[in-house]
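The authors assume throughout that readers already know how a fold can be written as discrete tokens. What matters is that the chain and its backbone geometry are given together, residue for residue. A single example would do more here than another paragraph of explanation. For illustration, here is how one protein appears when written out as sequence plus structure tokens.
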Amino acid sequence: MERRDCNYYEANAAGINMGEITSSAKNAKILQRLRDGDDKLRHLNVGRVVWQDFIIGEGDDLGWLGYLIGKSVCLQRLDIYDLRDGEEGHAFAKGIARSQSIRGIDIYNDLSNDAFTSIVRALCSLSQLEKLTIGVHTSVGLDGWSELGTLLGSGVCKLKQFHLYGNNYIGNEGMGVLSNGLRGIGSSLKVLRLNDNSIGNEGLFTLVEALQTGTSLEILNLSGNNFSSAAAGLGSLSDWLQRHEVNLYELNLQYCRINDEGLHVLAEGAAKHCEKLDLRGNEPITTLGLSYLSDSILSDSCRVKSLSLRDILIRDKGLEVLAQGLVGNQSLTNLHLGDLHDDVSITSAGWLAFSTALCDTSNVNSTYLSNHTIHFLCVEYGETIPRQSIVKYLRLNWKHPQYAARCKILMSHRHLNMAPFLHWGLKFLPLAVAWVDRAKPCTALTIDGYKPCTALTIDGYDPDLRILDESDEAFESRELTAMYEFVRGMPMEVMKSRHGLAMAAAYDKKIARIEEENKIALEQRDRKIEQLEEEIRKLRGW
């Protein structure tokens, strides 16, 4: 058989009939589109399954495919689900090595060590490659992973995304092999996913050391690894996060068996330097661990906007300690809680603590310092939250964040006690008047058309809630009463100031006017009642 290298394909490409040299019409069509430079063919997947674009069969399909991929200037993404060993696989890999357009390659399923190694070697020529995904490969040996480490460390590929998942035998030893390569792409890497690779404490240490150059990293996914005894490694990860050069957006640690000790050392760095933190499925975490997390989100420097604690048994005590952290938190907007319909679910006591965090009604100052940021609460499908006030507060935080604190004060305190402000003197009065003026829009605001989570059931849920069911007259009466109490609460200061006397007189006049208007309204109501009673008597012939 004639040796089929690049020269062979180059000599025969122009005149050959693709239907005669391929194992199927489907493959022939793909090759024809590549040869004709079809600019709509930008994504191609190769394997042995009928739904895939190019199905590996008998003949020289792979050789021609590799050659035409190398010539294409349009193909940008290639997914490899299967590959033959031997000359055909190598010919395909050599074609990929000549590509000037491919920017993303995904290598799925279980290639042999030979096929995997030949593809990885080919990638060493793709300086334009930005994304590389490698799925489960149980047949790849240490030499194959060493080739991958060489590729990453070569400096040829400036990967922005690297995803290696489901390779349980990589473990700590494999991380040692790959660590130098990760250092090589650290400066360009934005997304790193190393989930389900049996990485433990030692491997995590090695990874963190390799990430010292990863100052551009935005997403780090380590889910599905085993950090049950990795407190030291998690501590090193927390230290790395707290470097000023690091600006991580998302940290995913789902199902990593993290316990209370691990969360203790991780929480501070993760809370201060990640916007999205996913701790789902770490069942060893108890109320103690949640208290460490609560302390971190309570900090003014907390950056977390989205926190997932799903599949963790929260219980009442857990929700209570989380609620303590929410008070005063100004970053968290989304909270995903765990499986609440377990054998021990969250009861009304836990929800009361959460409601209090959103709006502490004990006094005006506590209401002001409550949480006015969180607006999305998600629990398991069908779970019921028994307090409608929680929903109202969440919707208020979402739809009117600029008015949330003022509205909650007006909702919770019908009478605004001015006594605590008397020591400020009359200089406080203009501030109080201005605050009331800024709060007046609360009487017209609505918070309809929003549910905090599609999986949530609310007892007594009202789809059209009004924040304050209060007329303008009632609001003005509340304002005047508060200001009148303030002025009358410091008579000596008022007597010393002509302006103070004028304000006192003005409030006296306004209150007198309102009282007169109320008196007239009552008289009109009484007359109307008398008229109706008289008409009824006439109709009955009395």
In short: The chain has 21 helices and 15 strands. The first strand starts at residue 43 and ends at 47.
